[in-house]
Amino acid sequence: MNKAVLEFSSRSSNVAFARVAVAAFASQLDFTLSDLEEIKVAVSEAVTNAIIHGYDSNPDHTVRLEIKVAEEFLEIEVIDGGRGIKDISKALEPVYSTDPERMGLGFAFMQSFMEKFALSSSPDQGTRVKMSRRAGAPDRKAMREQ
Question: Which is the catalytic residue, given 14, 49, 128, 133?
Fold first, then answer.
């Protein structure tokens, strides 16, 4: 197993940093360019949620990104210590958002682009998004169309 832990300020400019860091780490496995793009979108959504919803875009907080490569699996955790999610089942509904300026598709993208997805959160305690994907898995788009 190989792992990396990154902590960075809750600034929107760090979303791109998180995307590139995960893609660089994931490149140790046999992912296609399309796979890597989907993984980067999932990471972007998770980190953006932490910054915007967890911390109300306050840059004085920290987002933690844990990345692991084990055998053929990539595991990613995005953790914040922000305000948390009061109703997880509601938050997981497509197009639901507490911010009228947002489309509310972040969790839907994460679930669609990753093989496994888990969300845990407690009000005022923060949120943890855990996602994983196996390299060399059948084409995800073909799997969704079946």
Answer: 49
pLDDT in the model for residue 91: 72
Please, which pLDDT band fits residue 144 given cuts at 50, 70 and 90? very low
Q: Is 37 among the catalytic positions?
A: no
Q: Which of 19, 45, 83, 128 is catalytic?
A: 45
The tokens describing 58, both together, are: 């306050």
d(CA 103, CA 58): 21
Q: What is the pLDDT of residues 106-126, one digit of tens each?
A: 788 899 999 999 999 999 999
Indicate whether this model's pTM tops 0.90.
no
Catalytic residue among 11, 66, 75, 102: 102
Catalytic residue list contains 66: no
- Whether 140 is a known active-site residue: answer no
